[in-house]
Structure formats: structure tokens, C-alpha cells
Specification:
The protein is mainly alpha-helical. It is built from six helices and three strands.
Length: 176
């Protein structure tokens, strides 16, 4: 999960929660008084404490003296976005639905994913290219008469997002 922090009047900064090492995750957990699984779930739900803790610890790499109390972003200055791996797992799960119902076509899935990706992914160009790649693969399999792919792994699909946050520029490249 990528936390996008856009300070008032500043440029968006991206922080990859996967880049935390165990000691840093422990610092986040102690600081925000949450267990790591709750922090990970909180990132999906755009929990302010979870996002603030992750960004603060990652910012400390460049600013070791930064205190938690000194990093107090506005409530609309942080949002989360899926990294490349999370994006691909979500899209793969969606394309597994092609053919389950007659109206569930590769084209319809691709269109829905393009719309959903705008507010959900850190690397929009990667997402668009991956959607088109998967659509082409699924359509080629259908044309060749191949059986539908096995059922999607629900654990690999992107978690449901609960957000009312404003849009950020999702076109910048994200690590992962």
C-alpha cells in the first residue's frame, strides 16, 4: 500500500508501506497504539493514525530528528493507493470473472477497472497497461476456445476501500 502525502501547497510524496522493516513497523505500532495487522487494515480504510504513523517513520529516514508531534498533516493531505503488486492481484481477480455471466465480458471488466483505477492505484500508467495486457490475454484465450481460468483467489483481490478522500494525481510512478 502506498500512502500519498500532499502537504498544503506542496507536491505529492509517495511512501510505500511495504518498504518498512520490522523495527520501523514496531515503532509505528507503538506510536499509534495499534497492532501491525490493524495498521495494515487501517491503510486500506485510510485510517489517519495508520497513514500518519507510516509516513512519519518513513520520513524519519531522511529527517532522523523528526518527532511524531511535529508531523501533523491535514486530514485531507493523505490518501492510500494500491502498489503495483496489489493492483495486479486485484485486476487478475476481476478478469477471472469473465464468462461467469454472459454479460461479464473482458471489455466490460476492462472498462470498470479503468474507472476504478483512477482513485485507487499509485501508478496509473502501469495499471492501464496491465488492464490492456490482461484483456488481450483473456480475449485470446476465449478466441482459442480455452476453458476459463480457475476461480479467483479472494485473498489476492484488492480489499474494499472505504474512502471519501479527495483525488490525487495518480499518474506519478510508484515503487513496487
Amino acid at each position: 500500500m502506498i500512502v500519498v502525502y500532499t502537504p498544503a501547497g506542496g507536491e505529492p510524496e509517495q511512501y510505500d508501506a511495504k518498504s518498512l522493516v520490522t523495527s520501523e513497523a514496531s515503532i509505528v505500532a507503538r506510536t499509534v497504539d495499534m497492532k501491525w495487522p490493524a495498521i495494515k487494515a487501517g491503510l486500506v480504510d485510510e485510517d489517519l493514525d495508520a497513514m500518519r504513523g507510516v509516513v512519519w517513520v518513513l520520513k524519519k529516514r531522511a529527517e532522523p530528528t523528526l518527532r511524531f508531534g511535529e508531523f501533523d498533516p491535514g486530514v485531507d493531505e493523505m490518501v492510500t493507493r494500491y502498489d503495483k503488486d496489489e493492483t495486479e492481484a486485484w485486476f487478475d481477480s476481476a478478469f477471472h470473472l469473465v464468462g461467469v455471466e454472459p454479460e461479464t465480458t473482458a471489455e466490460r471488466v476492462a472498462t470498470a477497472l479503468h474507472e476504478a483505477a483512477l482513485d485507487s492505484v499509485a501508478d496509473l500508467e502501469h495499471a492501464r497497461a496491465y488492464i490492456e495486457k490482461r484483456r488481450a490475454e483473456v480475449e485470446a484465450d476465449e478466441a482459442a476456445g480455452k476453458d476459463p481460468e480457475p476461480e479467483a483467489n479472494p485473498e489476492a483481490s484488492a480489499p474494499a476501500r472505504k474512502t471519501s478522500a479527495k483525488k490525487t494525481s495518480a499518474s506519478s510512478g510508484a515503487s513496487s
